[in-house]
Automatic annotation (TrEMBL):
Name of the protein described by the UniProt record: Glutamate 5-kinase
UniProt family annotation: Belongs to the glutamate 5-kinase family.
Record-annotated membrane-spanning stretches: none
Pfam family, one: AA_kinase
Species of the source: Flaviflexus equikiangi
InterPro entries noted in UniProt: AceGlu_kinase-like_sf, Asp/Glu/Uridylate_kinase, G5K_ProB, Glu/AcGlu_kinase, Glu_5kinase, Glu_5kinase/COase_Synthase, Glutamate_5-kinase_CS, PUA
GO MF term (any one): glutamate 5-kinase activity
Job description of the protein: Catalyzes the transfer of a phosphate group to glutamate to form L-glutamate 5-phosphate.
Subcellular location(s) of the protein: Cytoplasm
Residues binding substrate: 60, 147, 159
């Protein structure tokens, strides 16, 4: 794996990056798409393109574009309303980008993905090859979550974590998350006393801050999904910058705007990081202490015999929490069984395949 960018000065020369712009920056106060923002964003990114930098743009804004075109009073709050608005809005959003980049003779391609597409090995190879082809052709991939088909378990909702997964997929030199605040603060920026955090060298520093999932009027996930995205990307060896959309030009010049999360790891297993950080779990299994010891000694799958209780409803492949006898979260994993069958098998030995296979599990206390 290539060496991580050590500092900001290198950003302006980095050959490849991912930039994500959130709903908060692309939406007018009445819920419609902010076209002035699209102008400045496209202009600044086209300048980077002309300096020979290549990037994938992860753009929200489909719902906002849909609100305008449907002529509805405000952004829907229910899932099917959001999906419908996104389905109407996505082609308009792409048209807006296509026109702006065409003025600079730059082509764009639409990439709609679910988290599953970037995690499942067979899918992610395809996604990677397709994106590489676009880069070879000099086309800018514009990525959004495929809101029409994303189910609640696989739906990210926010685009921050999708951007981190894309950064891994295309081997980006850095990830830039643009939002409506100029960076991470020690607490919600509206609260008096919150101060800007300029540098995060180690994710454990975040324990001292109050980072909420409550976002702006139109955003999803608040700062907490951005921090999760930074956690994932930096573990992949990709430094992450969080700043405001107004600061895009300065950030790409390598100026010290926003918050810089230094690369901490060199991991290549996107699936494991997805299980640990991004997947919303559908249920829980509770274990006896022997099973916890077996998992934590390493290399062992979870067997039904060590399970004392099964909570919730899930299908094989769904993410679940793996809880110790004291109620502590020991691991996360993808279920090998559906919840009903597992409930019947719990506590019994010799009942076939693993309840959670070791390759589908991430220990969280190590
Ligand atoms: N510690 C914090 N530092 C900065 N912003 C925070 C913090 N905690 C919560 N936030 C909120 O996160 C919001 C940005 O997230 P969100 O609305 O989801 O934006 P986007 O649509 O750009 O993804 C900010 O408007 C801010 O109010
Ligand atoms: N896929 C949705 C965006 C979801 C969303 O709001 O995400 P974010 O901008 O990260 O808060 C859309 O295009 O409107």
């Amino acid at each position: 794996m290539k060496r991580a960018l050590a500092n900001r000065a290198l950003v302006s020369r980095a050959p490849r990056f991912v930039v994500k712009i959130g709903s908060s920056s692309l939406t007018n106060p009445n819920g419609t798409l902010n076209r002035d923002r699209l102008d400045s964003l496209s202009e600044t990114l086209a300048n980077a393109y002309d300096r020979n930098q290549r990037f994938a743009l992860v753009s929200s804004g489909a719902v906002a574009a849909g609100v305008g075109h449907l002529g509805i009073a405000s952004r829907p709050s229910d899932m099917s309303g959001l999906q419908a608005a996104a389905m109407v809005g996505q082609p308009h959003l792409m048209k807006e980008y296509a026109e702006r980049f065409a003025r600079r003779s730059i082509g764009i391609g639409q990439v709609l993905l679910t988290a599953d597409d970037v995690i499942r090995r067979s899918h992610y190879r395809n996604a990677r090859l397709a994106l590489e082809k676009l880069f070879q052709l000099g086309i800018i991939p514009i990525v959004n979550e495929n809101d029409a088909v994303a189910t609640s378990e696989l739906r990210l909702g926010d685009n921050d974590r999708l951007a981190a997964l894309i950064a891994h997929l295309i081997n980006a030199d850095f990830l830039l998350l643009l939002t409506d605040v100029d960076g991470l603060y020690s607490g919600p920026p509206s609260e008096p006393g919150s101060r800007p955090i300029r540098f995060v060298g180690d994710m454990s520093e975040l324990q001292n801050y109050s980072i909420t999932g409550r976002g702006s009027a139109f955003g999803t996930g608040g700062m907490s999904t951005k921090v999760t995205a930074a956690r994932m990307a930096t573990a992949f060896g990709i430094p992450t910058i969080v700043t405001s959309a107004d600061n895009l030009g300065a950030a790409l010049e390598g100026e010290a705007v926003g918050t810089w999360f230094a690369a901490t790891g060199n991991k290549s297993n996107a699936r494991a990081l997805w299980i640990a950080h991004a997947a919303q779990t559908s249920g829980q299994v509770r274990l006896d202490s022997g099973a916890v010891a077996a998992l934590e000694s390493g290399g062992n799958s979870l067997l039904a015999v060590g399970i004392t209780d099964v909570v919730g409803t899930f299908d094989p492949g769904d993410p679940i929490d793996i809880i110790g006898p004291g109620g502590d979260l020991v691991a996360k994993g993808l279920a090998g069984w559906d919840s009903e069958s597992l409930r019947e098998a719990a506590g019994r030995s010799g009942v076939g395949r693993a309840a959670v296979h070791v390759d589908d599990m991430v220990l969280l206390r190590h």
